[in-house]
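DM from R.C. (forwarded with permission)

"hey, sorry to bug you on a friday — could you get me a structure for this? deadline for the figure draft is monday and I only need the backbone to look sensible"
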Amino acid sequence: MVDRINDITWQAHQGSVAAIIQVLNETLTKSGVRIRAVFADGVLQLLCEAAKVEELEQSRLVEEIQQILESIAPRNIRRVKINSRIVREQQLLWLTEIDGERDNQLLWSQEITLAQPNVVQQLIKDFQASQAEGQLNLPKLSPITNSDKQNKSPTVRWQLALGLGLLLTLGWVVYTQFGEQLKNLVQLENTNSFATANTNRTKTEADKSHDSFAAAVRIANKASVAGKTATSSTQWLELAAMWQRASDLMNAVPPTHSRYQEAKIRSQLYKKYSETAQKEAAKSEL
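My reply, with the result:
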């Protein structure tokens, strides 16, 4: 069985933003380009940074990124906005900052739409993946005797194979066309049933997950402002504590939250900012 937990390409295909970032960075590292990404409002926002302007040549970079993403074919991601700028110190809320001052922040920006993967090719990939994971459960057949083998003509075998292929193709087409609607309908039905029996508990858990994400953002915003004026060791230590608290809150966001993937990325970033602030505090004591 294939170990899908460590298969970054497979995770990126499933739509994991963290895995997409890793694949892009591993591919573009020789070009001197570093990628950061956030999925917001149905658009995968990419920030491309490099030390030199020539490393961010628009037509070449856009074409390369589009080829990489279309080879991955991330699920539920079609619109991608590519932003570029000269590398600078990491900013926590970079998407908010470039949206506020796009002309001053960016060299260029371009939105692209990823091509839909070929249905037959995608069917083959998913079929192979199912076999690799041992998830393809075919019905058990009774032993075939020699006389049975003689009675099985090539025409019958081809008809069976063709019928199975058509059935799989039809299932895939139905899934691509109506899969999201059916999934949303099932999720809505499950949510309604669950809410009927556990209304108070569901509301409490939803409030907690929302509060955890929102509280982390509020603390991070305060820390971002405080970091611009911090000079003393005490101020840097307070800043480190704020970043660590924001990281812990993001880490507490449950997988059911709509921005769970973003919360994972932010949790790691906040932790790095906390470590940086601690280093600055140590420098200030010298």
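R.C.: lifesaver. The radius of gyration is 25 Å.
me: no worries. The longest strand covers residues 43-50.
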